[in-house]
Amino acid sequence: MEKINLENIKIEPFSIKHIEEVTTIHSQVLDGWSMKSLIGDLANDSTASYVAVYDGKPVAFCSFVVTDDAELVFICTHQAYRGQGIASKLLMDSIVLELPVGITRVVLEVRSKNEAAISLYEKHNFVKLGVRKNFYSSPADDAIVMELYKDGAKELD
Ligand SMILES: CC(C)(COP(=O)(O)OP(=O)(O)OC[C@H]1O[C@@H](n2cnc3c(N)ncnc32)[C@H](O)[C@@H]1OP(=O)(O)O)[C@@H](O)C(=O)NCCC(=O)NCCS
Rounded to whole angstroms, how far apart are CA atoms 34 and 54? Predict the structure, then answer.
């Protein structure tokens, strides 16, 4: 694993120049994910996506659907860069610095067995709202619904 200094991580809005690396990051967790779906996201006005860039290359990606609230629909760090605080930085800088100022609340659903993601969200003050039983398939799992009010969110030091 390559050790990185978080000060050298830059958060940027996702754009077409990131597409190859972000497709690689997606394919590490989502079977059958295509570059075409990501290009669709870029063209969608209600989607706001951000990348953590290290040494000129995206190493993590997150995406929100923005309406009255923002819904975090995906966050992923490249396998070779996990466990170094990159998802924390990407998530919180995106929420605090990048999302439109009018957005006050972020919601999300997460697989109940995804301990790493739940721990990431709890670390940043997301609170559990409830459970959607059998929400996911392949494999079957419940969804934990969580929320964060932006005034409870803090930018990372
Ligand atoms: C969840 C994920 C995005 C975390 O990325 P990361 O860059 O490794 O996370 P960070 O290093 O910023 O970790 C921040 C916190 O997340 C939690 N966390 C991260 N990896 C963890 C693990 N393997 N086990 C338990 N908690 C973990 C911890 O609370 C950690 O804080 P700590 O370092 O003080 O203990 C990453 O594991 C991933 O890409 N998973 C696959 C995609 C996914 O499941 N996305 C979420 C649903 S869309």
Answer: 23
The answer to whether 28 and 78 have CB atoms below 8 angstroms apart is: yes
What is residue 101's DSSP assignment? T
Please state the atom number of ligand 1 nearest to the C-alpha of residue 84.
Answer: 11
Phi, psi of 90 (to 5 degrees): -60, -50
Task: Say whether pTM exceeds 0.90.
Answer: yes
Q: Indicate which residue's Cα is closest to atom 23 of ligand 1.
A: 116
Structural domains in the chain, sorted by start: 6-152 (3.40.630.30)
Nearest CA, atom 27, ligand 1:
116
Q: What is the pLDDT of residue 43?
A: 86
Atom of ligand 1 nearest to the CA of 72: 48
Structure tokens at 150: 């932006």
CA distance 157 to 154: 9
Tens digit of each residue's pLDDT (9 = 90 or more) over 63-73? 999 999 999 99
Helix ranges restricted to H, 33-147: 35-43, 86-93, 115-123
